Amino acid sequence: MQQGSNSRGMPRVPGLVQKSLRGQQPLRGFSMIEVLVTMAVMSIGLLGVAGMQAKSLQFSFASYQRSVAVVQANDLAERLWAGACVLGDSARRTQIFDDWQADWSNDGRLPDWNPALAYNAGTLTIDIRWMDERVGQHGRGEGQQQAALAEQFVYELVVPRPAECPAGAGGVA
Length: 173
Known about the structure:
With 173 residues, the protein is α+β, with helices and mostly antiparallel strands. The protein has 2 helices and 3 strands; from the N terminus they run ααβββ. It has one domain (32-164). The protein has helices spanning 32-82, 90-104, and strands at 114-120, 123-132, 149-158. Strands 1-2-3 form a 3-stranded antiparallel beta sheet, covered by helices on one side. Strand 1 (114-120) and strand 2 form a beta hairpin. Helix 1 packs antiparallel against helix 2 (90-104).
């Protein structure tokens, strides 16, 4: 008889006791129910991991869009700051904003992009809005359109008063 085999010459499996022909030793191992319960628990866990991954991608994209809005607002702020001493002049301010908007209008990274510029008592407010169709799907019923969440980034810039500007300062042409 070979070492590691039973009296009938069958190999022994570690951790598993096989029942002999005489019925002296019971079989030990996993039952089908135990295996099915384990598979169910693992499936639920893997579904949870997949859901977390999907949410992670969703929030990552929203963060990317917000970063694009910050870059756009900083670009406009730099252009406005270059002509800060003439920003009280609405024609000059509008010209800078229109040039900036023309440069970014075909970018396409922010869906339904809608920028605005407001000037009030020496403070410029840059308001960039866009629609995020990947967020806001909670509570959606059958037959309803997918809800889109309006995102917004607001940047405020305090402009120097004309008295603080040097004589003849007109910014960059």
